[in-house]
Amino acid sequence: MRARHAAGAVAVAAVAVLGAAACSAGSQAGSQAGPPSLTAPSASASARDRLRGGLLTQAQLPQGFNLLTAEINSTTTAAPHGPASTVPIASMPCSELGVESFMTHHAPPLEDVAVGMEQISEQADDYGWFGQEALDRYAPGRAAEVMDAIRAAAQRCPSYANALDSSTTTQETVSVTAADVPADDSLVLRIASALPDDPEPYVSEQAFVREGDVILMVQKLVAKKPRAGVEAVLPAAVAAYRAATAH
User: Fold this and answer.
1) 18 — phi, psi (to 5°)?
2) Of 10, 22, 142, 241, whose CA is between 20 and 30 Å from 166?
3) pTM here?
4) Which residues does 77 contact at the CB level (< 8 Å), separation at least 6?
5) ∠72-77-79 over CA atoms, to 5°?
6) If we measure between CA atoms, which residue out of 181, 236, 176, 238 comes closest to residue 206?
7) CA distance 206 to 98
8) DSSP-assigned states of every residue in 177-211
């Protein structure tokens, strides 16, 4: 498999994960809501509406970015998305660090909302920007524990092998830094994926910012020679959330 094709396979798989998460959220919302005539507005629905109001809008995105509500459905967001794992984040398989849904699987939030975004590049050596923003609300004190667990998992997995299929294995290298935004807590998780016979890795990034009991996450999926990372969107995402929750 050529490097470009392998990267495409990784990106397609990542998109499938995001789409599956959105569909799962929708089916969960539908299964939990019950017949409309028998269901009154609930506190949890109101909490989701308030949380959804903190997501980026098209007007708040940096110039050149577009929302992708078809890929990430920000209107059906019930949590959890499925059966929770009994394995905590701090001890989950290293390969799950690169999967967007590891938080909802290993540390399900009370409520979560998400929206997709992209930036198209016309330069041949730039794969552009594709990813999402998510807001996860936890019980009091739980968000801080989740942040500690993500950091612990990343520190436990500085390097690991990941099998894409029966014939292709990537070598993953993980780095963790603080996000360049003031917050209760923050970290940026970068995973560089090296394919066989390709010296230049593909990079995926996830930034986590804790604001009280809410974790704001901005994720950029795989890219080669990334010209812009999560930092291109993160300040706007934090500003949008704070503006929505200021009163």
Assistant:
1) -65, -45
2) 22
3) 0.77
4) 25, 29, 48, 51, 52, 111, 112, 113, 114
5) 125
6) 176
7) 9
8) E--SS-SSEEEEEEEEEEPTT--SPEEEEEEEEEE
